[in-house]
């Protein structure tokens, strides 16, 4: 089965992280023949040099100005030549068997339109935190989970291009482009799944918890809940409860928010695991 890879890069990326990310996809046991990278606005020389190293393996799309992750991915997706598309972030690492495992899912479940998996977070080297972010596996559990939180780790997903385009493609939505898209995709009740294993190693930095807070983030949390309600995917009571819970997390000090994310939501099962 053929597939495309979809990535977006902007000016503030780390060139070494970008290089490692690209290499992790080129090292897949089943390689791609359509690696789409959208240059979201002008890039500094250090990033252009990295892209030049792999130029023969890449399908580069250059945007004259920075448009943001959602619109950039939407432009890139429209240019992907295969029905199956694997998302990849420009600073994370895909494990070598990731693609093979996801292609097997689509071969075995022809009706499936979206497949993700777990991630393991790290700071300097993969495995240094021992922190795994789990997501629900079965379609029914994913539909229930999406009322409260994002049921997919974006960097891990492989999806059918036609399903994403039919749902309206990626759009701009303040740090939640993927969550908002999944709501639109799931509103038609397709078959979706997650693999119960880590597919990618994801970098986390000191700024992650600051980015997950603030009034602007809270505004978009409300908009997501309102969309779920309008699509009949949640109830007014569930919406009110979810907005209240997420509001508390968004406005608390970042140091305490970090504690909530890494301890309160953690389950002790060998390696530490979190569900959001």
UniProtKB/TrEMBL annotation:
Domain Glycosyltransferase 2-like: 4-156
MF-aspect GO terms: glycosyltransferase activity
Domain of life: Bacteria
SUPFAM superfamilies given in the database record: Nucleotide-diphospho-sugar transferases (SSF53448)
The entry's keywords: Glycosyltransferase, Transferase
Keyword Glycosyltransferase: yes
InterPro entries reported for this sequence: Glyco_trans_2-like, Glycosyltransf_2, Nucleotide-diphossugar_trans
Family: Belongs to the glycosyltransferase 2 family.
Protein name: Glycosyltransferase
Organism of origin: Candidatus Fimiplasma intestinipullorum
Lineage of the species this protein comes from: Bacteria, Bacillati, Bacillota, Clostridia, Eubacteriales
């Amino acid at each position: 089965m053929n597939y495309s890879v979809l990535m977006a890069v902007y000016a503030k990326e780390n060139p070494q992280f970008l290089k490692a990310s690209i290499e992790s996809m080129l090292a897949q046991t089943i390689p791609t023949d359509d690696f789409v990278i959208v240059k979201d606005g002008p890039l500094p020389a250090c990033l252009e040099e990295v892209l030049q190293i792999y130029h023969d393996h890449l399908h580069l799309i250059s945007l004259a100005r920075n448009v943001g992750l959602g619109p950039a991915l939407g432009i890139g997706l429209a240019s992907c030549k295969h029905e199956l598309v694997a998302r990849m972030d420009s600073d994370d690492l895909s494990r070598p068997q990731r693609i093979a495992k996801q292609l097997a899912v689509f071969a075995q479940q022809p009706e499936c339109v979206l497949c993700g998996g777990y991630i393991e977070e790290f700071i300097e080297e993969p495995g240094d935190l021992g922190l795994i972010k789990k997501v629900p596996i079965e379609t029914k559990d994913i539909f229930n989970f999406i009322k409260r939180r994002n049921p997919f780790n974006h960097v891990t997903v492989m999806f059918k291009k036609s399903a994403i385009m039919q749902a309206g493609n990626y759009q701009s939505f303040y740090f939640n482009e993927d969550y908002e898209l999944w709501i639109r995709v799931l509103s038609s009740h397709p078959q979706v799944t997650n693999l119960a294993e880590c597919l990618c190693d994801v970098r986390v930095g000191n700024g992650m918890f600051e980015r997950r807070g603030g009034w602007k983030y809270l505004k978009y949390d409300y908009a997501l809940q309102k969309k779920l309600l309008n699509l009949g995917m949640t109830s007014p009571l569930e919406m009110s409860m979810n907005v209240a819970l997420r509001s508390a997390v968004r406005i608390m000090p970042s140091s305490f928010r970090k504690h909530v994310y890494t301890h309160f939501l953690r389950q002790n099962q060998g390696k530490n695991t979190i569900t959001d």
